[in-house]
Amino acid sequence: MILDRFDMTDRTAIVTGAGRGIGAASALALAEAGADVLIAARTAEQLDEVAAKVDAVGRRAVVVAGDLSDLEVIASLADAAYQAFGRIDVVVNNLGGSMPRPLLDTSPRFLEEAFHFNVATAHALVRAAVPRMLEGGGGSIVNITSVVGRVSGRGYLAYGTAKAALAHYTRLASKDLSPRIRVNAVGVGSTATSALDIVMQSDELRIAMEEATPLKRIGHTEDIAAAVLFLASSAGSFLTGKVIEADGGLDIPNLDFGMPDL
After folding, report:
1. Whole-structure pTM value
2. What Å distances lie between residue 62 and 44, 57, 84, 230, 259, CA to CA?
3. Distance (Å, whole) CA 258 – CA 81
4. Which residues contact 3 (CB under 8 A, 6 or more apart)?
5. CB contact at 8 A, 76 and 128
6. pLDDT tens, 113-162?
7. CB 125 within 8 A of CB 74
8. Would you please indicate which residues are annotated as catalytic (active-site) residues?
9. What would the DSSP string read from start to end of 206-251?
10. Using CA atoms, how far apart are residues 183 and 231, in angstroms rounded to an integer?
11. Domain ranges within the chain, ordered by starting residue
12. CATH number of the domain at 2-189+221-244, please?
C-alpha cells in the first residue's frame, strides 16, 4: 500500500527547535509514523511536553536542552542520538529565525548572526550526523527554510538572505551526499506559531495576511510536519536537492512591516 511508504517504524530522527511550533509538530509526526526522536531546543520544559506526546504514541524521545546557536552544542546532538538509538536516519534542521529590520539598520554583524543561526548551525549538525547516517546505509536531511528566501519584501533582508542561503545549501549538499543521503527542504509560508505571534498585533492583521495568501489562510504546523514526513520517509525517496514550497501559494510576502521609504 502507498501508505506503507510513510512508515518510519524503528527509524530515528534528530529535530532541532523542537520545543514548540514546526519543530514540535515535525517530531510528533515522525513519532506517529513510528520513529524515535531526539528533540533539542533551549527550553527543557517545552521539550518535556513534546516528549510526553511522543511517549503517548509509543515511541522514545531523548530530550537535549541547550543553546543550539553554539556550534559545538548542536554538533553534539549527533553523538547523543547515536548513543541513545544506535543509528541516525533523519535530521530535521528547524533552528532559525531573525527579526525584521530596515536595510540601514541591518549591520554586517546582524547579517552574520542571521547566517550563523540559520545556516551555520544546520551545517554543523549535518557534518556531525552524516558519518553516523552512512554507517546505517544513508538517510534523509530536511532543512526548514522560508518563502522569503524566494520572494522579496521590505524588512526581510537578513532573514531572507539567510533562508535563501539555506535553500541553496540544500541543493549543493544534495549533490555532495548523493546517492546515499537525500537532502531536501521545506520553504515555509506564514504558519501559526508563537514566533508569528510576536509580529501579529491584531485580528485585523491576521485577516489581512489571510486575504493576501492565495489559499486564504495561515498555515498550520501540521501542514509543515506533513511535508517533513514526506521528505524524511520512503514516500520522498526520489527527491533530493528540492525545496517543497508549503506557503499557501505566496508569490510575495503577506506581511508588511511598514518600513518607511528612504
Report:
1. 0.95
2. 11, 14, 8, 23, 42
3. 43
4. none
5. yes
6. 999 999 999 999 999 999 999 999 999 999 999 999 999 999 999 999 99
7. yes
8. 159
9. HHHHHHTSTTSSPBPHHHHHHHHHHHHSGGGTT--S-EEEESTT-S
10. 9
11. 2-189+221-244
12. 3.40.50.720
